[in-house]
Amino acid sequence: MCPRNIIVSTVIVPVRALVIDWVFADGPPEGAFLYDNNSRQDFHALVPLTTPEEVYWSEEEDLMFRKLQEERRLKEEAMRVKMEKTGRLKAETKERTLKKFLLSQKDVVYTEPLEIQAGSSVTVLYNPSNTVLKGKPEVWFRGSFNRWTHRLGPLPPQKMEAADDGSSHLKTSAKVPLDAYMMDFVFSEKEDGGVFDNKDGLDYHLPVVGGIAKEPPLHIVHIAVEMAPIAKVSRTYAKEVAGNSVISPHLYKFHGIVNGIDPDIWDPYNDNFIPVPYTSENVLEGKRAAKEELQKRLGLKSSDLPLVGIITRLTHQKGIHLIKHAIWRTLERNGQVVLLGSAPDPRIQNDFVNLANQLHSTHGDRARLVLTYDEPLSHLIYAGADFILVPSIFEPCGLTQLIAMRYGSVPIVRKTGGLYDTVFDVDHDKERAQAQVLEPNGFSFDGADAPGVDYALNRAISAWYDGREWFNSLCKTVMEQDWSWNRPALEYIELYHSARK
């Protein structure tokens, strides 16, 4: 029998508890006002062991070991699932890129079916109006297999006939042997030759699937420049340097091939430098988390504003006068801007230090210039930015815009070199993108002055403010485009085989 001023409470003590801890309050946790917590030390009482001490600690050790084992198993299982998904995404991307590569040639040549099967018949469709055979009264097909090395030798020349769909294409058919891994062909104006379309010396080659033979490995050797094709890093850059008196005599050797990025290094699904891993399926969630983390880390205002990222070396080649103007223009449009980069020239570095001091003083919540090299931060900027600005004066290829798209950030670029070859303006380049079997993926501008960069930047920021649903879909679109080495590798393989001839 307890006195009336004694309050009794019964609690269930866990089997393996060692100490019971408590405080008193004048109400439930959500409504309590007064507490008795033993002068902030709380109340504690030992719980007697119900098993011998040695047995208890042995059981504790066993429980801890099992817990660690289970945590490791779950971690390894999560890693295995993630790696499987990564592998599946890579395979799907590679297959999708190959199909787009084949379709991108459709204005000149394609096959039905698009995927050539060993042991079946295939129809080759060719449009001479886009080649050197334009206007020729006849076109002849000359083909073989396995890069012209098939045991049966070349196929007999075949005169092509008009396609059934009423287009400009001509057609012919061929039987694909079971031991074929590649179909090879060229076109000529006559049965015995004349003018040839051999794809500028590369010949036409299309992969064959399902055969019993595999293509042997290609062993690449160093070939003298005077004798070999020269691969430039973009088609447009090859044209831009064509006027050089040293280069012009060798123009026939030039083959512009855009570089690719390493999808293992630049992979938002497996990136340890961003808070939430993401693919195109959850790009909005991933980029939102990255933007919040970027704003927090750099001391920017945590708000939903368009964020323009600039990741660059600060040199005249990179258009530093356009970068400065774009920073101020972004702030005028109520956006945020983050610049990461440094200058090898101390005068330019000091100039940007002064600009950083000015901006951090007047627009500290919306502008941050980090004037150093910081690769982990670059990953976070690529993921957290809405736009990545690349206003280069000249750019042989450019990887920044490719990495930006890998992370679902929309590129804003000047039309030069590889920037022009990889970024297709959403308002002006629909047909040019379609020719590459791509969707428009960014904003671009001509010229090297303030009105030029304003034209692209204003359209981009307005799209963010006025068409968020469309802009969000654009982020997904650019992220699904493949700018790895999958497609350049196909072109390089053809170039290497041509160099061996």
TrEMBL record:
Q: In which pathway does it act?
A: Glycan biosynthesis; starch biosynthesis
One GO cellular-component annotation of the UniProt record comes to: chloroplast
> Where does the secretion signal sit in this chain?
1-17
Question: One of this protein's GO BP terms?
Answer: amylopectin biosynthetic process
| Localization in the cell | Plastid, Amyloplast; Plastid, Chloroplast
Q: Enumerate the GO terms in the molecular function aspect.
A: alpha-1,4-glucan glucosyltransferase (ADP-glucose donor) activity; starch binding
InterPro entries linked to this entry:
CBM25 (IPR005085), Glyco_trans_1 (IPR001296), Ig-like_fold (IPR013783)
Note whether Chloroplast occurs among the keywords: yes
The EC number(s) given in the record are: 2.4.1.21
Catalysed reactions listed for this entry: [(1->4)-alpha-D-glucosyl](n) + ADP-alpha-D-glucose = [(1->4)-alpha-D-glucosyl](n+1) + ADP + H(+)
List the keywords (alphabetical): Amyloplast, Chloroplast, Glycosyltransferase, Plastid, Signal, Starch biosynthesis, Transferase, Transit peptide
Question: What residues does the Carbohydrate binding module family domain cover?
Answer: 119-209
The UniProt family comment states: Belongs to the glycosyltransferase 1 family. Bacterial/plant glycogen synthase subfamily.
Q: What is this protein called?
A: starch synthase
Q: Which source organism does the UniProt entry give?
A: Brassica campestris
